[in-house]
Amino acid sequence: MGGDYGPAVLLPGLEQLLERRPDIHFLLFGRQEEVIPVLDRLPRLKEKAEFFHCEIAVRMDAKPSQALRQGRWKSSMWRAVEAVKNGEADVCVSAGNTGALMAMSKFCLRTMANIERPAIAAIWPTVRAESIVLDVGATIGADAQQLTDFAILGAGMARALFSIEKPTVGLLNVGVEEIKGQEEVKEAGRMLREAALPTMSYHGFVEGDDIGAGTTDVVVSEGFAGNIALKTAEGTAKQISGYLRSAMRRTLRARIGYLFARDAFRRLREKMDVRKVNGGVFLGLNGIVVKSHGGTDAEGFASAVELGYDMVRNNLLEKISNDLARFHRRIGPDKNKTDA
Amino acid sequence: MGGDYGPAVLLPGLEQLLERRPDIHFLLFGRQEEVIPVLDRLPRLKEKAEFFHCEIAVRMDAKPSQALRQGRWKSSMWRAVEAVKNGEADVCVSAGNTGALMAMSKFCLRTMANIERPAIAAIWPTVRAESIVLDVGATIGADAQQLTDFAILGAGMARALFSIEKPTVGLLNVGVEEIKGQEEVKEAGRMLREAALPTMSYHGFVEGDDIGAGTTDVVVSEGFAGNIALKTAEGTAKQISGYLRSAMRRTLRARIGYLFARDAFRRLREKMDVRKVNGGVFLGLNGIVVKSHGGTDAEGFASAVELGYDMVRNNLLEKISNDLARFHRRIGPDKNKTDA
Predict the structure, then answer these.
(1) Does the pLDDT at position A178 exceed 70?
(2) Once rounded to an integer, what is the mean pLDDT over residues B93-122?
(3) pLDDT tens across B130-151, in order?
(4) Are the Cβ atoms of A232 and B229 closer than 8 angstroms?
(5) What is the pLDDT of residues B11-48, one digit of tens each?
(6) Which among A241, A300, A311, A305 has a CA at the least distance from the CA of A269?
(7) pLDDT at res. B339
(8) Angle at A156 between CA A150 and CA A157, to 5 degrees
(9) What dihedral angle (degrees, nearest 10) is formed by the CA atoms of A235, A240, A242, A246?
(10) Is the pLDDT of residue B261 over 90?
(11) Which of A102, A290, A337, B212 has its CA 20 to 30 A from that of B17?
């Protein structure tokens, strides 16, 4: 029900995805007045989907506490998350209200053993390929233990998605000499180095410009700086696209040049297409939840669902929980804090 | 003496700048073996400059404490900062070691009355024009009082540089609903709203993508997130330039298109040219210090010096200290902490 356009755009995305991933079975939760008319026009999807009517849909502008109060047990968002909890679904994907989705996911799925707080992971296109950046907005001011947990979550995701045996992991820090970096970041670096996990290669600190350069497969940050990095990169990409567009329209010569180089521009647009990397993944919960961008179109929503599909196929949760258990055995029970 | 190329590149930048700003008088501090041969080839600059030989030059990789220990009183960097302190120079510009320059500037110039910690301000090209972003790396984890001080410093710089009577000021925050933002940021917002200063218009919170959109003239952040935002934007711009370059080289059609649209691409490159906005400004000290990018060329160094020139001409320090005094009168002596 979520996103800027609701079922009218999201369901056609699922129909598209079925071409690439014909073995998906969908459980759809929403208001029948809005879903059924769209579904009736998409016979292939209809055949592969079960629909569950829910009277309540969480509003995009609802506060998380409000959404929980009004939507627990019965809203379409809750029931989609609950389907993961009950083992009816392998992954939940929503284009709805991020805060509400995180609140419901935490409440319903709970954090994994050995994890105190969840993280949101983003897939970041880089010069080399793609990297995973987390946390981009779930946890402000993470401590050293939480940062190392994020490193393990992110490395597990990289192993599941990119088929890398031993992904490289960097801790986001500032490189300017006069500030020594946050204490938590330094401590997390020491912990990761000492743990010497077989499932990741700890690279050390990275800076903001290392993200786009693809210096490491995984970049770990607490949620405040991570969110600001993500939004700043999106803003910069938008700004440069704008410059490029206006430069290409300005003169006749530029327009002719544009016509010749049209394929090159198309390629560039594809490279910069955020829809292809749509989907923030909630990590650290007992279940996989993917948050699609609210403003996405059908293709973007299909990417978000596909992302969830790929993680399930590659046993993300199993990888992560093994890695966590191994790490917490290594650092020993005295340093070990677990979720209550 | 600093920067990747030293006097051989920096001095020609000064010679260039004299064409635009013929009333500058330079005090040059450095090692005579390196400076004099270059200066001898630049007669116009030589006429407008006094040279002071300094045996010691702070190394680019020296730690701030090391630089202070070895270079205090006598290094070229120290003596350039000291010239500002003694009133012999209006502004100090260096392309050297950032950490050492900040340490020496703090030690020599001291923070202004009512300011606890300095900030580094960057000029950020936006869709609309340019904005000032601070702190980009001097102060990690600023408290509410320090953030409001940064707001005043940044607004003063905007008034001096952009000739705006009442610049808009935003506090950098995360917009995701489930996290309510850092407490310090919220408290700083309350303080700025209550103070209702006549010299700035407090806009509220802004997110990472608002920086490039030019939503406010000034964006305030503590140094960790601010530094990461700056580096991430630089990285993203570099990444997209790389995509564009390789797209335009890929096919014959694209190359022909490039030839036609060459002027448009030149315009785009100019828009994205970081040299034009070169210079991090140290704010909150009893004197103006500008840090040029170490890897700058002559033109970029000229921009950094010109930035310092413009701020002096527009009475930056006077504006800032009046604003600070007014603000601290408004919030009252009980809330007022001053630098020891």
Answers:
(1) no
(2) 94
(3) 999 999 988 888 999 999 999 9
(4) yes
(5) 999 999 999 999 999 999 999 999 999 999 999 999 99
(6) A241
(7) 41
(8) 90
(9) 170
(10) no
(11) B212
Residue B332 confidence (pLDDT): 64
CB contacts, 8 Å: B260 with chain A: 253-254, 256-257, 260
Residue A54 makes CB contacts below 8 A (sequence gap 6+) with: A29, A30, A31, A74, A75, A76, A79
Q: CA nearest B151: which of B182, B113, B193?
A: B193
Residue type, A217: D
> Which of A178, A254, A272 lies at the smallest CB-CB distance from B98?
A178
B262 touches chain A (CB under 8 A): yes
The answer to whether the Cβ–Cβ distance between A261 and B254 falls below 8 Å is: yes
What is this structure's pTM?
A: 0.89
Q: What is the pLDDT of residue B276?
A: 67
Of B103, B182, B232, the CB nearest to A209: B232
CA nearest to B149, candidates B101, B99, B184, B105: B184
CB within 8 A of A95, min separation 6: which ones? A2, A3, A10, A291, A292, A293, A294, A296, A301, A304
Pairing of strands B91-94, B288-291: parallel
Q: Which two tokens stand for residue A167?
A: 């992904």
- Among the listed residues A125, A135, A213, A123, the one whose alpha carbon sits nearest the alpha carbon of residue A161: A123
- Which of B178 and A54 is assigned the larger pLDDT? A54
The first and second tokens of residue A72, run together, are 């627990």
Give phi and psi for B204, each to the nearest 5: 115, -160
DSSP H or E segment with residue A232: helix A223-249
Q: Radius of gyration over alpha carbons of chain A, in Å?
A: 21
3-state SS string for A8-64: HHHHHHHHHHHHHCCCCCEEEEECHHHHHHHHHCCHHHHHCEEEEECCCCCCCCCCH
Chain B residues with CB-CB distance to A205 below 8 A? none
Mean of the pLDDT values across residues B251-280? 78
d(CA B162, CA B272): 19
At CB < 8 A and 24+ separation, what contacts does A43-50 make?
A44/A15, A44/A18, A45/A11, A45/A14, A45/A15, A45/A18, A48/A18, A48/A24, A49/A14, A49/A25, A50/A25, A50/A26
- The identity of residue B178, as a single letter, is E
State residue B338's pLDDT score. Answer: 44
Percent of chain A at pLDDT above 90?
A: 66
Q: What is the ipTM of this complex?
A: 0.86
CA atoms within 13 A on the CB side of B58: 36
Q: What would the two tokens of residue B31 be?
A: 């090692």
Side-chain-facing half-sphere of B119: CA atoms under 13 Å: 33
**Structure tokens of A181?**
């970096």
> How far apart are the CA of A259 and the nearest CA of chain B, in angstroms?
7
pLDDT at A337: 47
Q: Which amino acid belongs to residue B271? A: K
- For chain A, domains (ranges, CATH) are 1-108 (no CATH), 110-340 (3.40.718.10)
Rounded to whole angstroms, the Cα distance separating B340 from B326 reads 20
Rounded Cα distance between B231 and A209, Å, is 5
For B276, which DSSP code? G
Is the Cβ pair B177, A98 closer than 8 Å?
Answer: yes
Contact with chain A for residue B261, Cβ under 8 A: yes
Confidence class for position B253, pLDDT limits 50, 70, 90: confident
- Minimal C-alpha gap between B316 and chain A (Å): 25
Task: Specify the DSSP element, H or E, that contains B234.
Answer: helix B223-249
